[in-house]
Amino acid sequence: MMPNQHWARNFTVEKTDIEFLTNLLLEREVPLSTETLARALIEERIQQEAAVLRERYRDAQLYDPSKTYAIGQKLIFSEFDYETGVVVRSRPGNNPDYGTFNVIAIKFDDDTLNAGGKKLREFASELTTDHDLVDSEDDDTFRSMTDLNTEDIMASGQGEILTKLETRLRASKDLIYMARKWFPRDLLIDVNVGHLNLAEAVLDIAGGGPMHTEQIIEEIGGLGVKLPVELQTFSMNYALNNDSRFDEVGPTGEVLWYLNRLEPPEVLQTPAMLRYTPIEYDHSLLSADLVALEAEIGDEHSDLNVQSRADEEATIILTYPHRRLGTLPLSKRTELIFPTARQTPRVCFTLVDGQDGEEYQAWAVRKDRYIFGLAKFFRKHKLPIGAYVTVRQSEDAGKVIVDFKAYKPRTEWIRLITPKNDQIAFENQKRAIGAEYDELMILGADDLAAVDALFQAAQQQRKTLVSILRTIIPSLGALTPQGTVHAKTLYSAMNVIRRCPPGPLFAALVANPDFQNVGGHYWKMSGD
Hints:
528 residues; single chain; 34% helix
């Protein structure tokens, strides 16, 4: 292990280090990031350790078995992690295979290397035959390792160093962490009630936000003419963060403020149609084909052991609750496309209509895994339930493009939700469709109030998956000559009246004898 790697791996933060960094913040009078503080600490450590290293390797020479060494000479051994030792004696070697050479005995400074402390280690010198250490690159390596620098150390273990330092900084009562920067508590600018009331007024005029801290400070006339802008921004961020009127809604690396009372209700509280109460089920009931089908659907609450993919574009099949509420799922398939944040529960950003460039204010609600702000987009393009919606990254990190494959509207037969006698029912009816869609998941609804009433009744009556399936399978099956219904269609219909990912639904189909699989993910009622 190279010394810079060893240095990084054994990095610890002591009380004196925190005192050094606190003094640094006091001297500079501006907030600094964890990385900046880490680099300052490393540079300080390097200066201290450079003297130690220079003393340790003073008059030392890197061991080379082809060279001649005198008694008392100090050597460095690369094969022992650059430990040092002194030549204490020398004798002729005795091995015909290596010709004439000498053997030197070394007493290491680290006694654990002296063969258990009982005897000295011996090495060849004046060797004339080939050897791995002869003319090796170890000399260049040694010269570079004695000239440690911050970049090398950070490259070797930046993540570990920053984690350890941030943990110790957070434990300090004298420091405040805000907007990814640190500053001494005692030096914060006083942001009083008057400043905060003015900030509220500024955001109110702006429709609630979002606004950068610097914009707010400029609008209210600043916190002090001669005070550094960085310090004003940090102090204002801290004050706003501790006032319930304000909500920090910026993505990672950006601080944006919004008036809490002017945020959409659907962002502050998850709509009932999107709330999922986890349903326990036996995962082993699902075949590999059913698991693959669940992954294809891409429900945000699917309990699949898959990692997020850093794709630039993702395709979503629009379900009833998302179409009704103007939302999209924040699933494993899409979460890396939308802006995120380390601590902020709600992130405000911009959606760009891929068809005409119109922009919409949108929100990523990370905890309950949905994107809000697409109602106008859905209505404008008359997208049906089951439509394929694509989202992709744009050149602007704060914007995401939302799109679909459009074509000239044509009349097609689709499944229409037609509530009857307070029960969900379906009919085949013609509708004009102008977007590509999944034929198995498309649904239509004319009487939205009646469908909403079905959802509310299902919640009040706490209907089980099985009871709902007993209702929708016969109604959907009646629309086809075979009397069967595809699992994806059942998933789409189920989510009209109860929020449920595919896994529990598929398990209910498999486990209950009332339902019969007829192949190809098609189901019907047993005995029909």
